[in-house]
Amino acid sequence: VKAGYGAYTGYQTAKSRGYTGWKKWGYTAYSAASSAIGFGKILKFSKKAKAMFPSKKAARRAARRDAGIGKHGTFTKLNETLNAGSRHPRLSSNQSRNAKRSHKGHKLAHDRWGHLKGENGKPVGPHYNVYIKKGKKTESRHYYYPSKHDPRKNK
């Protein structure tokens, strides 16, 4: 019942806004799903779906945009030592990564080998990190991309 009502109101709203074609039917389907499941669950799913990018370049662009660097933004270069579990298996144990700090104070770093153990204890593939300062707290965002490297082999 909720989905039917959501579809009806979504269709009416899309029609009143002048949407046609795929935009109208997409709006209708989204309204039906958000009415049936709940808006919070739809939003959570959409954020989760955006975590994986189709290519390294797409992940880098999104991470740079979130860090406030963009195409022509200013930044300061940083050099950080990699933690255990984030190092390449065949290189020395004294490895580092290049990071950048934007003019906004946000930090962008590239974990090209991923992590042996992530937050849930499972291996995490290669990704870009953006550390966003919000007052005294720092929020960490990850931008994953496909890779053939197996992080379980990291040292």
Describe how the helices and strands are arranged.
Layout: H1 2-16, H2 21-37, H3 39-49, H4 56-67, E1 75-81, E2 96-102, E3 107-111, E4 127-134, E5 137-144
Antiparallel strand pairs: 1-2, 2-3, 3-4, 4-5
Helix pairs in contact: 1-2, 2-3
Descriptive report:
With 155 residues, this protein is an alpha+beta fold. 35% of the residues lie in helices and 23% in strands. It is built from four helices and five strands, in the order ααααβββββ. A five-stranded antiparallel beta sheet has the order 1-2-3-4-5, covered by helices on one side. A hairpin with a 2-residue loop joins strand 4 and strand 5. The protein is elongated.
In short:
This protein has helices at 2-16, 21-37, 39-49, 56-67, and strands spanning 75-81, 96-102, 107-111, 127-134, 137-144. The longest helix has 17 residues, at 21-37.
Percent of residues in β-strands:
15-25%
Q: Main β-sheet, in a few words?
A: 5 strands, antiparallel
The arrangement of helices and strands along the chain is HHHHEEEEE
Uncertain segments: 41-50
Distance between the termini: 54 Å
Which structural class best describes the helix and strand composition? Answer: alpha+beta
Number of strands: 5
Helical percent range? 25-40%
Question: Which strand order spans the largest sheet, edge to edge or round the barrel?
Answer: 1-2-3-4-5
Q: What is the approximate shape?
A: elongated
